[in-house]
Amino acid sequence: MSQTATCQDENELINRRNCYPLLSFDEMKETEVVLVWGKDLESTHSHWLSVLNEKKIIIIDPMGTSLSERADLHIQIKPHCDLHLALLLTRFTIIEGSHDKEFLQKYANNYEEFYELTQTLRIKSTLESINVSLGQIGALLELIREKKIMILVGSGVLSPQNGDETLEAIDAFGMILGLFGKEGSGVHFLGKTVEGLELPFRGSFEFMEEVDLSFVTTS
Q1: What is the three-class DSSP state of 126?
Q2: What is the pTM of this model?
Q3: Could you list the residue range(s) of the whole structural domain that residue 168 is in?
């Protein structure tokens, strides 16, 4: 489900969100930062490792791998807390003014309402609950600022409680950054199957209006 091809008008961009060609090496050539979110590329997509050379690498995953050891940033998030991190990243992106205002005004002018939703999160307690520091948030935003970014999303972000909402929130983060329709940028799902999933990477650019932000209690 690649959203990386350059487009000239709104209809073309929307149509591309309904089409999921396999991500190609050519599409990654112009990428400057690769954010691997909930995916072990070494185990399932090892052929991509050579493409990551000379690119900044960010890993968001509870597990550590040899790729995370050489990454520029590894956020070892608590399992099943990806939704909260995606919302916080969106919130801080807007706070620091790094959101793509031109893209949002053209394709998703209701983003301010979504920003209000992100403000319902209590920052300090949420960061403590998801095992992420404010410094890591700042480091991630610094790495991606004014860069061509490819977000590679794996099935590790999914959970029985809020899998669909997590994908929506990650997609929304990509929208806030204006990653769609630009060479070397995009959001791409690398799960083994999309059967039964209501993926947000399609159709018009719409933000979620409400979300269950309660945490899963684990023993």
Answers
A1: helix
A2: 0.86
A3: 10-189
